[in-house]
Amino acid sequence: MSRALTVSDTVVVGVEPDVVYAALSDVRQMGRWSPENAGAELADPGAPIGIGTVFVGTNRRGRARWRTRCVVTAADPGRRFAFDVRAWGPGRRLLPVRVASWEYTFEPAVGGTLVTETWLDGRTGWPDWTASVFDRVATGRDSFATFQRGNIRRTLDRLKRELEWERGREQAPQDRTDDAS
Question: pTM to 2 decimals?
Answer without folding.
Answer: 0.90
